[in-house]
Specification:
It is built from 10 helices and 9 strands. Helix 2 packs antiparallel against helix 3. Strands 1-2-8-3-6-9 form a 6-stranded antiparallel β-sheet, covered by helices on one side. The longest helix has 23 residues. Strand 1 and strand 2 form a beta hairpin. By secondary structure, the protein is of the alpha+beta class. The chain is globular.
Length: 274
């Protein structure tokens, strides 16, 4: 497949880039989450993706999907160039075309960290080549280019997903029950002590398997989840003090400082955007 020059594009509802790091630096790639949907294509390099405790080995051409607040991290081999494409868009980006949000099943209608990867071989070769190549070639209008090719690509992935979810395993990482529990109880008191007691595990063992599965410490993971959930609630019109309580921050000043540090804006300013 002939590749075009690398590019980036950012607008109010779409943020995408196609790039290559000749000498990737491992510290650049850390566990993170965001408040948008992501479609990522791995073109060249060597590494593995960790999503909510589930590990995915990567081959050239693999597509990864991450939904809002889904924690993910790439463990990249720094001895090789790293080439990829990534597009971020809101959950209602295609709402006018897909009013029932059926396409969003591939993001939202699945457990966290499950059914994230779609290999090149899952697609009809001619369909994959056409849609992916169209995303990368030269264009005077990146917004139109990416939008018009992203929609049919997601539609093809949706077809694969509907078949796969009936037959494929949902993963068996030892950290996944812990991650599931954290996400379901994010507004409760979550400490190493009570997690160890809940899962009959020692602190060193908990920290070790959690770090291996997510690339993050337990506390950093919990904080990041709480803050991204808080940001989404503020954007949906929930008042800041209520948001803090719903996300396990018993002290508003702690929430305020953490939010400002993470997003460079205050909870009230985020709330007033609406």
């Amino acid at each position: 497949m002939k590749m075009s020059k690398y590019y980036s594009h950012k607008s109010s509802n779409l943020n995408c880039h196609y790039k290559c790091d000749e000498h990737p630096e491992k510290e650049t790639f850390k566990t993170h989450n965001h408040d948008s949907c992501e479609l990522y294509i791995f073109f060249y390099g060597k590494g593995k993706f960790l999503v909510e405790g589930n590990e995915y080995s990567l081959s050239n051409g693999d597509i990864m999907l991450m939904r809002p607040a889904e924690s993910h991290y790439i463990d990249i081999d720094t001895s090789r160039p790293y080439e990829r494409f990534s597009a971020h868009f809101s959950e209602d980006f295609f709402k006018a075309i897909d009013p029932n949000n059926s396409l969003m099943d591939i993001y939202n209608n699945r457990p966290a960290g499950v059914f994230n990867k779609y290999s090149r071989g899952d697609f009809k070769p001619e369909v994959y080549k056409l849609l992916v190549q169209n995303l990368l070639e030269e264009s005077d209008d990146r917004q139109m280019q990416v939008t018009t090719n992203l929609l049919p690509l997601l539609a093809e992935i949706h077809k694969i997903y509907k078949t796969r979810r009936m037959t494929d395993s949902v993963g068996n990482s030892p950290a996944q029950p812990i991650i599931k529990y954290i996400n379901e109880n994010i507004n409760e008191s979550l400490t190493l002590d009570n997690l160890c007691e809940k899962f009959y595990i020692s602190k060193p063992q908990l920290c070790r398997i959690f770090k291996a599965a997510t690339g993050s410490t337990v506390q950093n993971y919990i904080n990041a989840k709480r803050l991204i959930n808080a940001k989404r609630m503020l954007n949906s019109g929930v008042p800041p003090t209520r948001v803090a309580t719903l996300n396990g921050f018993n002290d508003y000043s702690v929430f305020y400082r953490a939010f400002c540090k993470e997003y460079g804006t205050t909870p009230k300013q985020e709330y007033n955007k609406n």
